[in-house]
Amino acid sequence: MALLAMEQYGLMLCGLHPALRPAASRASIARLRRRGLVPVWLPSAMALGRPEIAESWDVTSDSLAAWLAGTLGLRHLVLVKSAPPPEPATAERLAAAGYIDPMLPKLLQRYRIAARCVTVDEATMFGAAMGNGQLLGTRILCDLPRGISTPQQGDVGIGMRNLKGPRDVSRE
After folding, report:
1. Please, are residues 108 and 127 in contact by the beta-carbon 8 Å criterion?
2. What is the C-alpha to C-alpha distance for residues 163 and 141, in angstroms, rounded to an integer?
C-alpha cells in the first residue's frame, strides 16, 4: 500500500511541471535523464518483492531512495525532511530517534552512499547552491568504507551534475 501511495504522489508531482516525468525502471530513468527531463520514480515495479527491501514499516521513502541510488550506482543522496536532524547526525542516532527509518543506515553502508538532509526551506535553495559549488544541509555521519566521503566525488543525485570539490556550507 505504501508503494502505491508513493506512486500516486509521484504522478501528482508529474502534473505540476512538464519536465517532471514518471519513471518505473532503470531504463526509463536513464532515457529521461538523457533527454534533460527529471524522472519521478514510481517504485512498485522495481522494489516490490526485492529480498533486500523489507516489506515492513522499517522501510520508508528514505530507504527506498537509498536503495534506488545504490541500484543506479550513485554514491550520494540528499533527503528532504520537514525539520533539521538532531545533532550529532549519526545514521544510527537518527534512526533511533525516528528521524530516518531503521533500514537506512544499513543501506547507506551496503551501497557506500554518503547522505545529507536538507529541510524543506533549504530544498528550495539547493539547486542554486549546487550551481555555485555549495552544498546545503546536514551530513548524515555514517561509517562508510574507505574511499567514500561526503560529496567530493561521484554524483550528488538523479539529475544533478557531478561537482568537482564543492564548497560545503552545511551544518556539520
Report:
1. no
2. 20
When pLDDT is cut at 50, 70 and 90, the band that residue 162 belongs to is very low
Length of the chain equals: 172
DSSP state at residue 95: H
Going by C-beta distance under 8 Å and a sequence separation of 6 or more, which residues neighbour residue 121? none
Residue 34 confidence (pLDDT): 96
Confidence tier at 58 by pLDDT (50, 70, 90): confident
- Confidence band for 115, pLDDT divided at 50, 70 and 90: very high
What letter does residue 146 receive in the DSSP assignment? T
Entry pTM: 0.80
- C-alpha to C-alpha distance for 102 and 91, rounded to whole angstroms: 9
Name the residue among 83, 60, 75 with its Cα closest to residue 6. Answer: 60
- For residue 38, list its beta bridge partners: 20
Residue 2, CA distances (Å) to 99, 106, 117, 157 in order: 18, 21, 22, 23
Find all residues with CB under 8 Å of 152, minimum gap 6, and list them: 165, 166
- Phi then psi for residue 110, to 5 deg, are -60, -45
